[in-house]
Design goal:
Order of helices and strands: HEHHEEHEHEEEHEHEEH
Number of helices: 8
Oligomer: single chain
Structural class: alpha/beta
Distance between the termini: 39 Å
CATH superfamily of the largest domain: NAD(P)-binding Rossmann-like Domain
Strand content: 15-25%
Number of strands: 10
Radius of gyration: 20 Å
CATH topology of the largest domain: Rossmann fold
Length: about 210
């Protein structure tokens, strides 16, 4: 099945499944039921079965799912064998944390370079990632198509324009700004304050079973 035919909600859950299956595989577990998966990733069993059904017959009734088979399947589906190079824009507190973390649990995503306007940060390596001046953005990006935006909110729009001009087609936006981009560029907004408020709301109104 073409990836474009898979619902976006399903596509967003695939990395969750992959991460859990990877943990199971490392523990030597050979099979898993949709019920076990459901409990681990906090997605109901019916949704998991429906998600998996988009990819054909991945499991057997009464047996569950073969962990190694699923893991290999989702590795190919998520292009885990292809390294995605990422640029980080804005080396403040959050940006620095990203550079030091640099997706340690992921084998297919790596921040290769960072950009900032602060002369005290430029020409340094943070978490083994070189930091360049923002004016070098266009010259340095080359084959990088994805960027993480962690700049002050008033700089978000200008930085976005620079990224689009430099060929970036995917932006993970950690600023509260709702940036505007051309149709060929995809933006995922992550507002930490909003996410935290949503978490507190759900804790109050939809408590989990103990």
């Amino acid at each position: 099945m073409e990836h474009s035919n898979i619902p976006q909600a399903t596509a967003k859950r695939l990395p969750l499944y992959y991460r859990y299956l990877n943990n199971l595989n490392q523990q030597g577990k050979q099979r898993v039921s949709s019920k076990e998966l459901s409990k681990a990733v906090k997605v109901d069993s019916a949704t998991i079965r429906r998600d998996f059904s988009y990819f054909g017959a991945l499991g057997k009734k009464g047996y569950g799912y073969n962990v190694e088979y699923l893991l290999n399947f989702f590795r190919k589906t998520l292009d885990q064998d292809e390294l995605t190079k990422v640029a980080l824009i804005g080396v403040g507190n959050l940006g620095t944390a990203f550079l030091n973390y640099n997706f340690l649990r992921s084998n297919n995503t790596k921040i290769k370079m960072a950009f900032d306007a602060d002369e005290n940060k430029v020409n340094q390596n943070i978490g083994d990632v070189p930091v360049y001046h923002i004016d070098e953005l266009h010259d340095k990006l080359n084959d990088i198509e994805v960027a993480i935006l962690t700049v002050p909110v008033h700089e978000a729009e200008r930085m976005t324009e620079m990224l689009v001009d430099a060929g970036i087609i995917g932006i993970l936006n950690f600023t509260p700004a709702r940036i505007t981009v051309p149709n060929h560029v995809r933006v995922h907004h992550i507002d930490l304050a909003v996410e935290l408020q949503a978490l507190v709301y759900f804790l109050k109104h939809y408590p989990l079973e103990k």
